[in-house]
Design goal:
Elements lengths: L5 H11 L6 E6 L3 E6 L7 H4 L7 E5 L2 E5 L4 H9 L13 H13 L1 H13 L3 H20 L7 H15 L1 H12 L4 H12 L10 E2 L2 E2 L10 H20 L2 H45 L1 H17 L7 H11 L5 H22 L3 H15 L4 H11 L1 H20 L25 H28 L2
Antiparallel strand pairs: 1-2, 2-4, 3-4, 5-6
Keywords: Cell membrane, Kinase, Membrane, Phosphotransferase system, Sugar transport, Transferase, Transmembrane, Transmembrane helix, Transport
Membrane topology: Multi-pass membrane protein
Pfam family, one: PTS_EIIB
Length: 459
């Protein structure tokens, strides 16, 4: 596989973006370089698609996302070397703010999905690390004789539990940043909801108004709604409070208003939303498990392409809170993700151009591990027949997963690298074995269908 020249890619991206002076902020997620521009009209999209190492360009709500792959941190490191570029912080340029506002007016559903996905995306590494430690604990106790009373178990158990207990803090910080508000106040709100006298408190009231008893550590909707309200209050106060008083009074008044409103109104609404969502999704699953999981298996590449995959995390959390595992979303995405890998590897085998073969091979290996953006953008939607193969493989794998009742016990990126997530906490191996069978079947079918179609279409 050809070695990438990250410095050259960096310079090319800066050039197609209209130069350093047109770039207001640069960040990155797991596979994409995310660029915010002062003037989007200066971006040369045609030339951007020709840059070696750039698989695709995705535009979402005024943000320009260059799909690179899992090596995007290496490219990001080159941008840090440019002193004229901002690699963090809040976008304050009026033109960029106007662009964001216009994007929000365009499509309400797209804005909601983008907000949810953008909120959860930065938290994914925490969720994966914390979630998979649950599988590590099962392995240690079931196969290595580690006692649940030992210090080793206690430490790893703390890693696992802290991830989800303090999730409202992480979500609060991320949501506030997504709204271009104060991230630390968002995290502060999450911490307040988890405080011992607030979280699951019985008989609590504020100024005589009763506060509903809610376990805030097991739901994410209350803190999301609270941060949405907080951002409005914070923005309003920042405009009306004199500059010399803002540092003291804006955060103080913001929290004095936000916390009671969240506890009395938004918290109960968010908690009810989470319960309804979990019950509704699980009712669909129980009505026809094989069909429900098959649909997820078929449509996952489309969700990834349109940036909707991370927006499913609230459903996953709701299912985990209600039924203790996820038999639908992650379970359906597991065969879908590895099917993308199988389709990409088949496309690599067929490819005559060495660069196409290199891209497809790298994307295929990455997809088998659960990261599918390089494969979806760089292979599936450029050649089309690998997309058909991946959807067929993911659908058949999802159908089998639903038939045998396969489920995922902890949050992780669905793929072969996360196979411990399918170990049943009770120590039995049936679910793990079925998970391996389902994913191998999905890869095999996707590879076969893609290879047959590719041979016909590449003649």
């Amino acid at each position: 596989m050809a070695k990438k020249n990250y410095a050259a890619i960096c310079n090319s991206i800066i050039a197609v973006c209209g130069g350093e002076n047109n770039i207001s902020r640069i960040s990155h997620c797991m596979t994409r370089l995310r660029v915010q521009l002062l003037d989007g009209s200066k971006l040369d999209r045609e030339e951007a698609g020709k840059i070696p190492g750039v698989l695709n360009l995705v535009v979402q709500n005024g943000e320009y996302q260059f799909v690179i792959g899992q090596d995007v941190p290496n490219l990001y490191a080159e941008f840090i070397k440019h002193e004229g570029l901002k690699t963090g912080g809040e976008v304050t340029d009026a033109a960029a703010l106007k662009q964001d506002t216009e994007a929000k007016k365009g499509n309400v559903m797209n804005t909601i999905m983008s907000f949810i996905g953008g909120t959860f995306s930065p938290v994914i590494p925490v969720l994966i690390a914390g979630g998979l430690t649950g599988a590590v604990l099962t392995l240690l106790t079931a196969f290595f004789g580690v006692s649940t009373e030992s210090g080793t178990y206690t430490v790893i158990y703390a890693i696992n539990q802290a991830t989800f207990y303090f999730l409202p803090v992480f979500i609060g910080f991320s949501a506030a940043n997504r709204l271009k508000s104060n991230g630390f106040l968002g995290a502060f709100l999450g911490a307040i909801l988890l405080f011992s006298t607030i979280n699951n408190a019985e008989g609590l009231n504020f100024l005589g108004i009763s506060i509903q008893q809610i376990s805030y550590n097991s739901t994410v909707f209350p803190v999301i709604l609270g941060v949405l309200f907080m951002a409005v209050v914070y923005r309003f106060l920042s405009k009306v409070v004199p500059v010399y008083l803002r540092t003291i009074f804006v955060p103080l008044i913001t929290m004095l208003i936000t916390v009671p409103v969240t506890l009395i109104v938004l918290g109960p609404i968010g908690n009810l939303m989470g319960t309804w969502l979990a019950n509704g999704v699980f009712a669909i699953y129980r009505a026809a498990p094989p069909v429900a999981v098959m649909i997820i298996g078929i449509t996952t590449p489309l969700m990834v392409f349109f940036g909707m995959n991370n927006a499913t995390y609230p459903i996953v959390f709701a299912l985990l809170a209600e039924v203790g595992s996820d038999p639908l979303i992650c379970t359906g995405m597991a065969p879908a993700n590895v099917a993308v890998g199988g389709a990409c590897l088949a496309a690599a085998l067929i490819a005559k151009d060495i660069n196409d073969r290199s891209v497809a091979t790298g994307a295929g290996i990455t997809a088998l591990c659960g990261i599918t953006e390089p494969g979806v953008y760089g292979v599936l939607f450029t050649k089309k027949y690998p997309l058909i193969g991946a959807m067929v493989g993911g659908g058949i794998g999802g159908l089998l997963a639903g038939l045998v009742g396969m489920t995922q016990y902890v949050i992780s990126t669905p793929g072969f690298i996360s196979i411990p997530a399918y170990i049943n906490p009770d120590g039995t191996s049936a679910n793990l074995i079925w998970a391996m069978v389902v994913m191998v079947l999905a890869v095999t079918v996707a590879f076969g269908v893609t290879y047959v179609l590719g041979k016909k279409m590449e003649k």
